[in-house]
Automatic annotation (TrEMBL), chains A, B:
Residues at which NADP(+) binds: T12, G13, A14, V15, R40, S41, S159, G160, N325
Name recorded for this polypeptide: Aspartate-semialdehyde dehydrogenase
Pfam families in UniProt: Semialdhyde_dh (PF01118), Semialdhyde_dhC (PF02774)
EC number per UniProt: 1.2.1.11
Length: 349, 349
């Protein structure tokens, strides 16, 4: 029986914490596990399955004997150390955006394009959180009716920006409730840690996630565009996105409009999604049943509801898609990729 | 010089309070003003321009000698008393949805269709808050390039649902910050006062505003569809909406996609909106300048930014539109209608 040695890079962050939760309940036969971080965090302890582990300093040699390395410590760390892990025989599942669009790096949502895993050269990229849940919801519809076009507006939670961003939102919110004037609300992280200006998110909506790039679109918006085409292996799909941060701690919501190739009725789409892997249909307006960010927290599923025909376009459909951005959007999809690879005999010897 | 006698119906609500602010600074030559409410609120006092007024009980005779009656006390009150006011010679500007789609009732955004005021038969309807700001932003573009299609996803504040909804959001938010479990968070009003189930909005997004109606769309969504066609006097415009409540107190945001008849560049659209009545362009990604709900509070303007070409459709444009839903979305648009009517010699004799 194959058993695998696992290394987790970046175990103390918002995603890392959930990575440990997902590894606690994984079907992967873990032999050894180690937790790696920068010198700053090395020496701290971390609990896993009731045992205490000391975080080791991340160096190239850390990956000797490692079969699976899960990276979630920023693009710079992945850029430097993922190749070192691969050189030493590990499979890397990288949660940063660094390798996503590189040729030879599969970008995988297990429910959508597991076959791409076979083409890997050591590194597999985990897509962006907002892309993953959209892919889970749309792929079953694409399989049945084809997919020509996507227009998406997101309602994204702050946990995608890390623990410090979550703390900042809580502090800002309390300050507002305490009557602190708007100009004195602390804002040092959002909307994008690396950008010049910072704005309060509490009781606000910020139409900027990540920094601005070409054509007036943010990187987050470009991720949704480019990653969709790569995952669906269709450069012809029309995709445009507007990505917005709202005062939610965890759980991304998306208002998605699609145009299919063949027309589909609402009940046909509901039927397809009822039977789709990774999807939970929550769609009964008569009972006010629809997906909600708060309810998604802690679930691996992608929730879909508010499915309606466009009022004018025969092949147009609107829907509301929600998922826990730290789980299916990050930690769970990464661990699920590893499980899938194990199942496909691509991991562990 | 004409002077007018004004009656305000529903002066104590979230919109009513702003109505008084708008009347304080109006250019209308007010002769007398009176404040009307149900028996329950009658007898309370209200301050206007440094003077104390006693709220009178609303009865049909209240409108004797009144030239302008501003209604914002719910559809039922408008249904019953607006005709009584008209019967006594008053012009009614009604902020509820009751008369909006009735023939013979102009539905007016002064920047868009002031000419419709000439056709009035006593009652003028103020459009829905989320519709108004969209009309202000899109009409100048429609004038220049034509408008074939609108797809809008909203990010709406709670103040549109009244003072009690604002209080509820604040209480829920404090409870969350204090660690109260999700199931014990008080929720008695949102998403729709008159509906069966209520959900917490704090740190959540609720894809339901008003109750559900035909085709799986909510009334709020239908309002945006039907009112747009009536205000723009074009039943051929394709409109679909997804209306979502988010944890913001005041300031509606909208992610709007349009298709024009003739292609327009981003700088052409920016140029047009720079010179458009009621619009403030806030659109400079290089400086992280874009409209924000928090910044819109207290302004009569509609803020537009994030203007981008669709990545695939030559005639497709995306934008982000924000306005104070209590001002341009309600109180200011109502008072502005009255000012416009006065200017057009339709009010006061």
């Amino acid at each position: 029986m194959r058993k695998i040695n696992v290394a987790v890079v970046g175990a103390t962050g918002a995603v890392g914490t959930q990575m440990i939760n997902m590894l606690t309940e994984t079907s992967l036969p873990i032999n050894q596990i180690k937790f790696l971080a920068s010198k700053r965090s090395a020496g701290k302890t971390i609990a896993f399955k009731g045992q205490e582990f000391t975080i080791e300093e991340l160096v190239p040699e850390s990956f000797e004997g490692v079969d699976l390395a899960l990276f979630s410590a920023g693009g710079g760390i992945s850029e430097k150390f993922a190749p070192e892990a691969v050189k030493r025989g590990a499979i890397v599942v990288d949660n940063t955006s660094h390798f996503r669009m590189q040729e030879g790096v599969p970008l995988v949502v297990p429910e959508v394009n597991p076959e791409a895993l076979k083409t890997h050269q050591g590194i597999i990229a985990n897509p962006n959180c907002s892309t993953i849940q959209m892919m889970v919801a749309l792929e079953p519809i694409r399989q049945a009716y084809g997919l020509k076009r996507i227009i998406v507006s997101t309602y994204q939670a702050v946990s995608g920006a890390g623990n410090l961003a979550m703390d900042e939102l809580k502090q800002q919110t309390q300050a507002f409730l305490d009557g602190v004037p708007k100009d004195e609300i602390p804002a040092n992280i959002l909307p994008a840690g690396g950008d010049k200006k910072h704005y309060p998110l509490a009781f606000n909506a910020l139409p900027q996630i990540d920094v601005f790039a070409e054509e007036g679109y943010t990187y987050e918006e470009w991720k949704m565009v480019n990653e969709t085409k790569k995952i669906m292996e269709d450069s012809q799909i029309k995709v445009s996105a507007t990505c917005v941060r709202i005062p939610v701690l965890t759980g991304h919501s998306e208002s998605i409009y699609i145009e299919t190739e063949k027309p589909a009725t609402v009940s046909e789409v509901q039927e397809i999604l009822t039977n789709a892997a990774g999807v939970t249909l929550e769609d009964d307006p008569s009972q006010q049943i629809y997906p909600q960010a708060l309810n998604s927290v802690g679930s691996k599923s992608t929730f879909v509801g508010r499915i309606r025909k466009d009022l004018d376009e025969e092949k147009g459909i609107h829907m509301w898609v929600v998922s826990d951005n730290l789980l299916k959007g990050a930690a769970w999809n990464s661990v699920q990729i590893a499980e899938k690879m194990f199942e496909m005999d691509l991991l562990g010897k």
